[in-house]
Structure formats: structure tokens, C-alpha cells
Amino acid sequence: MKTRSILAAAAALSLALTACGGETPAEDPTEGATNGAEVSPEGIDDGTELTMWTRAPLERQAKNAVEAYNATHENQVILEILPNDDVEGKVGGAIQTDTLPDILAGDVVRIPYWVEQGVFTDITDHISTLDVDNLQQGHIDAGTIDGRMHTLPFVTDISVMVWNKDLYEEAGLDPEQGPTTVGEFLEQAKAVADLGKDGVAGSYLAGQSGGALVFTLFPMMWASGEEPLGAGGTEANVASENAKAIYAAYNELANTSNGLGAGSKEETGATWTAPFQEGNIGVMQYPYTAVTGLFDTVDFEIGVAGIPGVDGNQSTFLGGDALGISRSSENVEQAWNFMSWLMSDEAQQTVFADNDDTASSLSVLENGYADADERTLIANATIKDGRTPVAIYFNEAFNAAGSNWQLLIQDAVWGDGSQVDTLNEEISATLGG
């Protein structure tokens, strides 16, 4: 297996795209749909040059996919890597001038808004030629509107619970057993905090990063049987009793000496993963694309598990990027050739599994990691319990700087929790558009 470079900061930043303004929605979000016409399952491979945009945090995976495709096809994909902070402006400008690339990849939580704005071509009939049940559904659901499908999975990033086995052993904990409930998470974090070691804390939280907070806390809610979003993504449910129990655990850590790492309250996501990477955190949620890069580079042992709920179970945030054919493309069948190829088990194995990345094919997840690190198998097993939140105004409600979601966490974890119900209502108002 190949050893990854450490992508900690990039993975954290990939969760916090801000909304673009001034976009002009298409007259029909299903522009370019096949409307039931017969389509080829493989598309056309005739030497067409295709353009594609993707985000910088996922550059390595995108290059792996494009290089593998270009080496085996007549069509050639020209990949452009966009700085994470430039994506919204670039896409917004291209919408107005109808100059989007043939293939567009984007943050899965932003996909519903783009679909609603008519950014993508309706490829329902193309997708229906695939074994859709063998693909992780979160990135497909994100691009579905009124039953019409526009996107497929591109790069799947998941959140997992990680712990420092060396610190666990020092604290008298079983280094092979991570938390299986929110209560155990609290107990284990406090045990590490009680070591009283300089610079070492029980856990860490990105208090000012809405994206990192949903990536880490939503799975705890899902595992607890809660739906943080309701009414088709237009209502928030982040003030439930289980949600408050999760916040209470973090509030207790915030009020415990060395409970939460220094800087947690102010953390914007830019350095969110660094404290664990440096060996200074006992247990926390983490992007799996970042943690695998640490296995062979840090001087401590790392444990990996699913993210638990209040009373058990597990879940994960199916993050990363989804992929679609833009409404500007005049090469729909050629672009589909790339997308359909990428969904094949052979491509999923070569591009993702063989590079220790998370495949979107369920059969590859089950059978394609025979030589993988055991922790990768554990992480892959959480995908069946994972979710992707779908809401048109998700970015504005949760990820945007100063969002009511950020304010809610600040109040619940570092305040007295008195504003949680009110802020939940404010989030609902934003989600409702």
C-alpha cells in the first residue's frame, strides 16, 4: 500500500465552503436531461477532450482518477484544481456566463444548492443503467431533486473516532478499546485529561468551524437515532434531548482541566486536526483521509472506530465530493464515459482501494481491501451506517462563518446552553430559505 502525505489541514478546510452570491438560476434545473431517450451505459469514447474542475483538498484522489482514465481511454480529461476558497466564486461566475466545465466535482453538502440552481445536467437515465444499489447513496441523494438524479460519488471522506493508544495506556485505559457510547467517550477523554501532562488534553473540538462541527457531531446524533435535519432539509433538529446530551458531554470537558485542547473554542478549522497529529489529544473525531496519512508517520499508535451515539450504535459523515456533468457541457456522452468508468469495480479498486482511499462501490469496500490496514477495514465498515445531510441552504445554515449553528455550539459547550432552542429555530429559518 502507498503511504499518504498528511492532509490534515486540507481535510478540515474542505468542510467549510462559503456561499456564493449573485448566481443566476437556470430556467429548468433539469436542462440537458435525456427525458427517457435510450442512452448508452458506457457513453462515448471517441477522443474528445473533456474539462473537469475539482477542489484542491482532494487533488491527489482526482489526479489518480484522471491519470488512470486518460491512460486507458481515447477521451482525455483536462483537470483543473481550484483553491478551496475560490470554488464558489469560480462556479458562480461560470453559471452566469455558461462556461462551466464538462465535469464538475464539488463538496457534497453544497451539491443540493447547485442542483437547485441548475448547475448540472439531469443524468437520471444514465445513472439508471448502473448498479446503483452497489454505490454509496449519500452522494447520489445529494444530487437528486424531484426524483431526478444529477450526481454520482467521486471522493468519499468519512469521519471516524480516533484515539492515541499510548496516552490511553498511560491513563490506565484499554488501548485497544475506544468509546462505544457518548458516556464512554467522556470517561476516556477525562481519564487522559487527568494525566495532567503539559499540552495534553482529553479531546478537541473546532468551535468556530461549522463544517468540522457537523462532520464530527452529526454522526453522534445519527447513531443516537436522531435526524438533525427534517422536512426535506428545511428544518433543524439539533436541540433534541440526545443532541443536548452530546453537548453536555463536551460542556463537561470544557469545564474540566485539560478536558478540551487549548484553542478549541476559537478553532476555525485551519488547524483542527493538528493537535491529535502532534500526539497531544486522547480521543476525538477525525477525517479518515487525514488519519491514514498518520499511520506510518507519527510516533504513537492510533486506534480507529465508528463514531458512537448516546446509547451505542455508530455512524459516520459521508463527506467528500460528488460528481456531475455540467449544464454547459456539449459532450454529455463523453463525460458519461468517464463517470460510468469511475463507478466500475475495476476503477474503484485501482483508483481508490489500491491507494487506501475509500471506495464508493460497496462490493469493493467488502472485498477489495484484503491487504489493507485493519483500521481501514474498520473505517469502511462504518459507511453502511453513514449519512449525508441534504439541504439546499446547508452552507448558509451550518458552514458559513458566524452561522447560528456555530453560535449554538458556542453556547452549548462553552456557555450555559440557554440559547440552544432559540438558535435551533434560527437555523430552521435559514434552512427554509
From TrEMBL:
Keywords: Signal, Transport
Cited Gene3D superfamilies: Periplasmic binding protein-like II
Annotated source species: Tessaracoccus rhinocerotis
An individual GO BP term: maltodextrin transmembrane transport
Protein name from the UniProt record: Sugar ABC transporter substrate-binding protein
Disordered: annotated span: 22-47
Keyword Transport tagged: yes
PROSITE patterns: PROKAR_LIPOPROTEIN
Pfam family membership, one: SBP_bac_8
